[in-house]
Amino acid sequence: MTPSRRGLLGGAGLLGLVAAGSAAAEPAAQADAAALQATLERYVAFGSKASGGPGDEACGAWLESELQRAGYACRRQPFEIPFFQLRRATLACGEAHASVVPQAIVAPTGPQGLTAPLKLASERGDLSGAIALVVLPYKRWIALGQPEVARPLADAVSRGAAGVVLITTGPTGEAIALNVSTRHPPIGRPVAILAPKDAQPFLAAAADGKVATLIVDGAGGRRKAFNLIARLDRKAAKTLILSTPRSGWFGCAAERGSGLAVWLWLAAWLARTSHALNVELVATSGHEYEYLGGERYLTEAAPPAASTKLWVHIGASAAARDWHELGPRLLPLPSADAQRVLTATADLLAPTRQVFRGISGLEATYIADKVMAGGELTNVLSAGYPSAIGLYGVHRFFHTTADDLRCVSGELVSPVASAFRRAISIAATRP
After folding, report:
1. DSSP for 176-199, written as a single string
2. Is the pLDDT score of 333 beyond 70?
3. Which of 45, 409, 64 is nearest to 258 (CA)?
4. How many C-beta neighbours within 10 Å does residue 329 have?
């Protein structure tokens, strides 16, 4: 989907959001959907958001410019990140041919590929030298470290598989990229993801042990990425931290864009609203490597827990579109996907539930602990920050190339942004 010209205009950014917010002085006022739509379109126009890549870097630079214009002092926190510049990724067997998604951290095959018998990993026995097909159960997949992925993958490798193809069975039929930790050793074998919609001929070929060729060709290594940190220093004793990731495997329109639009709208409001708190914003890169940028910020740059009044984290799928699943077709709905989770620490649980009442999925606010918090907020709580609110979700097109502007809109983002504003107002003024 092509972004409209409105979203690419220089004025359709944070300053536009400030203007929209200035007309809404009351905490109950609704966030301007048109301004939020412009932010979404601008974000999507940067293309792929892979950490440290051109889209991620351009997005970070745009946010930096917008926040500086609103009065924030900005700095960049650099770090290194793995990357892989793809040339070709395919799986072929006889007449069957499909594109695949290389799984990070990538072990390339080279341009000639890996040619070997195709075997089902679910069949017991030796897989030495084979390309193993691992069929994952139906789920909205997130990460390579999930037990339902990690166990069969490790098992296939332990039985000698020369390469592994994961079939990410999920709600769209698309290949679902998986987040990966840099703290664990790489698999060391070519691993790729095959879309369920393309899987049937390969499953049939694997049942007969036919020879296939897996190509994962490109160049990789490590490159620079950065977290963007912006601050309003009001010489206050306490600080409000507002964080969101900006990177991801593909275009990330709803996965990242919806949360980023909320974050940027709140940044505009906070720039002109004093709660006698310092304000620190962070838009992290490295998210797809198991929150690497968020961890770097937390351990190296974040204000201490003792001087932090509140940490608000706006994670994935803050306001993604819901879809009707009618056979093989998905039909868009005007409502938001309810598979999003809101958590708050005990001191903020009741008021947070109140302000998010009636917003699907988020109205059932849970206690923020190491079990329910999810994502980066888990690390924040472990580091001892006492008061926090966090959101995360997994929408239908999560981690797929099809997560584009069809999956999100300013109208869907608006009530979430408005509710976060009210929640922050309440938390910031509590004794």
Report:
1. ---B--SSS----S-EEEE-GGG-
2. yes
3. 409
4. 8
- Count of beta carbons in the 10 Å neighbourhood of residue 18: 20
Q: Closest Cα to residue 268, out of 31, 37, 55?
A: 31
In contact, 77 and 297? CB cutoff 8 Å: yes
Residue 61, token pair as written in the block: 């630079």
DSSP per-residue letters across 351-393: HHHHHTTTSTTTSS-EE-STTTS-HHHHHHHHTT--SEEEEEE
In angstroms, the Cα distances linking 211 to 91, 103, 115, 194 are 11, 22, 7, 17
Rounded Cα distance between 57 and 404, Å, is 19
CA 120 vs CA 101, 117, 339, 340, 364: distances in Å: 19, 10, 32, 34, 41
Q: State how far the Cα of 367 lies from the Cα of 373, in Å rounded to an integer.
A: 8
pLDDT digits (tens, 9 = 90+) for 109-143: 999 999 999 999 999 899 999 999 999 999 999 99
**Distance between CA atoms of 244 and 260, rounded to whole angstroms?**
6
CA distance 70 to 75: 15
Start-end of H helices in 278-342: 292-300
pLDDT value for 29: 64
How many C-beta atoms lie closer than 10 Å to residue 44's C-beta? 25
- Extract the tokens encoding 398: 């999560």
- Distance of alpha carbon 421 from alpha carbon 356, whole angstroms: 11
CA nearest neighbour of 21 among 268, 260, 319: 268
Q: 232 forms bridges with which residues in the sheet?
A: 279
Report which of 182, 249, 252 is spatially closest to residue 40, judged by C-alpha positions: 252
Whole-model pTM? 0.92
Say what angle helices 33-45 and 410-428 make with each other, to 10 degrees. Answer: 110
How many Cβ atoms sit within 10 Å of the Cβ of residue 413?
29
Identity of the amino acid at 272 = R
CA dihedral 63, 65, 68, 73 (to 10 degrees): 70
Q: Quote the tokens at residue 304.
A: 């201490």
Query: CB burial class (10 A; 0-12, 13-18, 19+) of residue 151?
Result: exposed
SS3 6: helix
HSE (side-chain half, CA atoms, 13 Å) at 167: 24
**What count of residues does the chain have?**
431
Q: What is the mean pLDDT of the chain?
A: 92
Pairing of strands 321-326, 329-336: antiparallel
Read off the amino acid at residue 409.
Answer: S
Q: What percent of the chain has pLDDT over 90?
A: 87
